[in-house]
Amino acid sequence: MTQNNILIRRYIIIGERRLSNYWWAIIIFLGSCGFLATGFCSYFGIDFSFFNLLNESQGASSTSLPFFPQGLLMSFYGSLGFLLSLYWSLLIFWNVGGGFNEFNKKEGFVRIFRWGYPGKNRKIDLSYSLKDIEAIRVLLKQGIDSQRTIYLRLKGKREIPLTGIGQPLTLKEIEKQASELANFLQVSLEA
């Protein structure tokens, strides 16, 4: 380990670019395309369905889906699904919530950086002196909506979360990261 690695620690926060978000954006997009195609085919009177094509090849007759109300609702749900998948894709592209936590003993500061939504406040960049840090606090809530978060407690009882939202860590990982950080910063660790 070099001297700089001992004096500077950086923890990467993933944000919206998680595999599960890519998965759901693609699945919702594909589902919405199916709903929209069904709604449009219903509006134009086209009998377009995989199951109907199979039935016709076996000699069975098929009936078209009436536009009102079924086709209209299919179009509405397809539009909502498309907009949701577009929104989700934009969140992934912008990497909302992604960033890093940097603890720099060499320069004597803590820097917490996150990407936000586009606009004048897109970059959230907080910087504090190491002298302002009182403790590292770990919050462990068990239950249906369990929460495991590491907080940086500053003078004046201000607490800043260090772990990303929707980034579940095991109990062992959170204890290890919190204790390493408290040892590195030479502050107390609170539960």
Give an account of the 3D structure:
- Keywords: Membrane, Photosynthesis, Plastid, Thylakoid, Transmembrane, Transmembrane helix.
- It holds the Pfam family Ycf4.
- Belongs to the Ycf4 family.
- This protein is of the alpha+beta class and 191 residues long.
- The chain has helices at 3-7, 19-44, 50-57, 67-94, 171-185; strands spanning 8-13, 99-104, 109-115, 123-129, 133-141, 147-154, 159-161, 188-190.
- It has 2 domains: 3-15 and 96-189, PH-domain like; 20-94, no CATH class.
- Strand 5 (133-141) and strand 6 (147-154) form a beta hairpin.
- The two termini are 30 Å apart.
- Helix 2 (19-44) runs antiparallel to helix 4.
- The strands form 2 sheets. A 4-stranded antiparallel β-sheet has the order 1-2-3-4.
- The model has no long low-confidence stretch (mean pLDDT 87).
